[in-house]
Amino acid sequence: MQEFKNFINGEYVGSSEDRRFENRCPVDNSLIGYVHEAGQREVDAAVKAAKAALKGPWGQFTQAQRIALLNRVADRINERFEEFLEAECRDTGKPRSLASHIDIPRGAANFKAFSETLNNQSTEGFRLDTPDGRGAINVGQRTPKGVIAVVCPWNLPLLLMTWKVGPALACGNTVVVKPSEDTPATTTLLGEVMNECGVPAGVFNVVHGFGPNSAGEFLTTHPLVDAITFTGETRTGEIIMQAASVGLRNISLECGGKNAAIVFADCDLEKAVEGTMRSAFVNCGQVCLGTERVYVERPLFERFLARMKEEVARLKPGRPEDAQANFGPLVSHQHRDKVLSYYELARQEGAKVEIGGGVPDMGEALSGGAWIEPTIWTGLADDARVVREEIFGPCCHLRPFDSEEEVIALANDTPYGLAASVWTENGSRALRVAEQIEAGTVWINSWFLRDLRAAFGGMKHSGIGREGGVHGLEFYTELKNICIKL
Ligand SMILES: NC(=O)c1ccc[n+]([C@@H]2O[C@H](COP(=O)([O-])OP(=O)(O)OC[C@H]3O[C@@H](n4cnc5c(N)ncnc54)[C@H](O)[C@@H]3O)[C@@H](O)[C@H]2O)c1
Ligand SMILES: O=C/C=C/C=C(\O)C(=O)O
């Protein structure tokens, strides 16, 4: 039975209050092990270790030394690829075929993605004319922000954690990570890698627990935390933003979405079906960038719906190690109850269930898992809660539209603004529509094609700030101006 302990100042630490909670596999509800909940004592120790590490050897590392060490961390994750893969799939139930192509490779790549940016990014400089004619030079200097609190969700545990830890450490900060209570394994394992690679103690710390009145709250309210980067539900982001306001700590918030796919009649049908299938059903629909609203130009609507139903019927649920499986369970029974409540709500709101809508019979061995049927609805009103609220499951609603103006208004009629996809072979229309969509990322004839240098983040209720490329610099460093009188 595994023990998932806190990782503080380079050592694994059990909970002093002996507050352990179960970690169960959503495939069959089997017990993976016990997670050691960090109390205020453990969180305080982790934050103070991170604070002290800034003044220790880590604070003397040059940028080149930090980048070399983080590249080593990435390489070590890849050397221990199978362990990370096994841990991630046990925690989440996702197919190995998915985690081996997305979660673990990106979990490592995120430590390298930022190196090029840091090496090539200049800081500003200005020459100022002065009355005495001798002038002055202004030089920008970037310094680490300090101790960064990193609070993570359960859907892409390693990827979304290192998407923050990578640039944070590359910029010379130290971190205290609070992984989701549902998926502690890969973040805990990363502590071993940090030690193996010689990352100084206190630079990378992990505290386990929940949100309110637990490690999440203790961390985000700790006065020695200099900035907070959070990925999770919008309502949680609002709470964390309030905590960050005490002491004016900067925040980076990556929150919820209710993303639209816009399919024009002139699209490459099979490309649009493949992309929309992935965006609606990959990771059992538990992707913030995923599609839950599909708008199809009327002449194509019936054909597109028929093709989507065919492809949904082909999805193969099964254990992560089942090479034929391409569809896993939801992350927990608690989350399945939430998604099933929307399946019931859809019926009450008058949806036509085109396919799915329930719980599959997975047989005796898997009957304890958080399995659910991939589902397509049609016929709902635009103001239906199922069309407006984030469900975060393997489901989407298809609706026909008749004009470009109509579909842009429909797509933007949401409090969220995270992502969207546009499918058409008319390039100028694609760009014209993309420019009008209120979302942080718009894909044209693609989905989840990620350039790690590009700005990434949400607008409206989907978040604050941008990460990726130079945008990470703004959040993970302080920019100082030094004025030199000549
Ligand atoms: N925008 C993005 O990039 C992105 C990426 C992945 C997931 N998400 C969003 O995350 C959500 C699913 O993840 P989730 O269910 O883990 O989200 P969540 O908000 O319930 O939890 C996220 C993390 O916050 C912690 N937390 C909860 N309450 C807290 C509090 N009061 N103080 C401090 N920490 C607290 C949790 O323990 C967890 O570690 C969905 O809404 C999804 O859209 C967004
Ligand atoms: O579920 C949300 C996925 C977010 C993905 C990223 O943050 C990324 O690809 O860097």
TrEMBL record:
Domain of life of the native organism:
Bacteria
Name the InterPro entries for this protein.
Answer: Ald_DH/histidinol_DH, Ald_DH_C, Ald_DH_CS_CYS, Ald_DH_CS_GLU, Ald_DH_N, Aldehyde_DH_dom, OHmuconic_semiald_DH
All residue ranges annotated as the Aldehyde dehydrogenase domain in the record: 15-482
Gene Ontology MF terms in the entry = oxidoreductase activity, acting on the aldehyde or oxo group of donors, NAD or NADP as acceptor
Is NAD set as a keyword in this record?
Answer: yes
Could you tell me the EC number(s) of this protein? Answer: 1.2.1.85
Residue positions of the active site:
E254
UniProt entry keywords in alphabetical sequence: NAD, Oxidoreductase
Quote the NCBIfam families the UniProt record gives: OH_muco_semi_DH
Q: Which family does it belong to?
A: Belongs to the aldehyde dehydrogenase family.
Please report the name of this protein according to its UniProt entry.
2-hydroxymuconic semialdehyde dehydrogenase
